[in-house]
Amino acid sequence: MKSDEFFALVRRWMTIHLPLSRRLSPHTIRSYKTALNTLLAYLGETRHLKLEQVGFEAITRNSMSEFLSWLMDVRQLSATTANQRLAAIKSFLSYCAGEDPALVAIWLDIKKVRPARAPELAPDALSMPAVEALIRAPGQHTSRGLRDTTMILLLFDAAARIQEVLDLRLGDVNTTPGIGQVTLTGKGRKTRTLPIMDKTGRHLEQYLDVFHPGARAPETLFFYTGRAGQHHQMSQDNVTYLLNKHAAVARVNSPDLPEKIHAHQLRHARAMQMLRAGVPLPHIKEFLGHANIATTSIYASADNQMVREAIQKAAGTTTDLAPIWKGPDDLILRLAGLK
Q1: How many angstroms from the chain centroid is the CA of residue 224?
Q2: CATH of 3-119 given 1.10.3470, 1.10.150, 3.15.10, 1.25.40
């Protein structure tokens, strides 16, 4: 298949199928775009193919296996990230097979490429004292402090992904005591409605009184940033900056707070808290919005690892018995929707 036919399918996938048919978020679409751009870089570096030479004949089971290794060995990506790039390519080829039966054989062949084995790392959850110190750090004597406190509390209480909180609309939040809840839109535009603590509901209501006084249109962004008198959606980088600013304050009273903080650590902390409270893994899976319970099971493994580390620490007090990378190429990428 010629290069123009290859990139025509890329364009339809990126600009029509993903955003309109599958209704994926811009963040997810960017991830798919990164995967395809990385594949093109790989074909350029290892097969010396210019963009106008790229076609489906370059995508074989062998080349994709080598692509996976190249991602980890040359690009220094983790196994998990490399597997995400591979999954995105497989998703693209699945779409292509549906568009052109002549490509079914290629798709079926690439499906056989096994993901790299990723080590099961324990989630870097914050301790509960660290969570509490981080929630208290912004204070509530200023409107920004109130906003940041509310956001951190909600990230933790709902075990929410950062984009899920940034996408919240007023109509997604119910602060009624006893039945308070939030409706989050997660990966694949799937929604889940979660209960929130009354304490969280009170903070949300206080935030609403300050940041959304008067009539409240359901589609209005819950959290926002102001520029030139207009409300705009906050960015993930903005939230990460705020978390680390407040962590620097909280670290005075909670030295175990890591030097760098990210929102997912609050999500991990909530999941670990639920697990230790006896909440069954299937319930935690639904709460977190995981597609597969195997993803949730890592929290149980992490808890067992903590027990093991505690035992090892205790055993440390005993005596050891023995020592023991512009032109026409740029145009092709733009026309294909990759830039």
Answers
A1: 20
A2: 1.10.150
Rounded Cα gap, residues 250 and 128, in angstroms: 13
Torsional sign, CA 188, 164, 268, 154: negative
The Cα 101–Cα 107 span in angstroms is 10
Token pair listed for 158: 């709902």
| Domain spans, the chain | 3-119, 128-315
What pLDDT digit, counting tens, does each position of 165-224 carry?
999 999 999 999 999 999 999 888 889 999 999 999 999 999 999 999 988 999 999 999
In this prediction the pTM is 0.60
Return all residues near 121 (Cβ < 8 A) that are at least 6 apart: 298
Beta carbons of 287 and 194 less than 8 angstroms apart: yes
The burial of 288, by beta-carbon neighbours within 10 Å (0-12 exposed, 13-18 middle, 19 or more buried), is given as buried
The model's pLDDT over 9-42, given as tens digits with 9 standing for 90+, comes to 999 999 999 999 999 989 899 999 999 999 999 9
Q: Can you name the CATH fold of 128-315?
A: hpI Integrase; Chain A (1.10.443)
> Contact 51/329 with Cβ under 8 angstroms?
yes
